[in-house]
């Protein structure tokens, strides 16, 4: 098998609101859209984020109304403090402050209008063994 692209698809009540959040605050661009559907990408992210409205007939019936919950969209960045300052100055609520884990992960979180957690992270804390 050869994987040629990657996407994560999330069913949310208001796909347009989540899409605007990633466009306005995280530099994503909408690459495809239709009623109840929005696909976003960044050249440097390595993943497409797709938002789907509940009840889409194109999805299997058992998946149509299962909303995204309990997941974290995590993006590794080079300047974590700079991104934190940029988001704060842009009025984005920081829902988890910058934390440092004993294994070297440093991260903070925001939430989009549908409650999807968006986390920015680096591996520059004491004890880090991974390169970002």
TrEMBL record:
<dbReference type="InterPro" id="IPR037523">
    <property type="entry name" value="VOC_core"/>
</dbReference>
<feature type="domain" description="VOC">
    <location>
        <begin position="2"/>
        <end position="123"/>
    </location>
</feature>
<dbReference type="Pfam" id="PF00903">
    <property type="entry name" value="Glyoxalase"/>
</dbReference>
<protein>
    <submittedName>
        <fullName>VOC family protein</fullName>
    </submittedName>
</protein>
<dbReference type="InterPro" id="IPR029068">
    <property type="entry name" value="Glyas_Bleomycin-R_OHBP_Dase"/>
</dbReference>
<dbReference type="InterPro" id="IPR004360">
    <property type="entry name" value="Glyas_Fos-R_dOase_dom"/>
</dbReference>
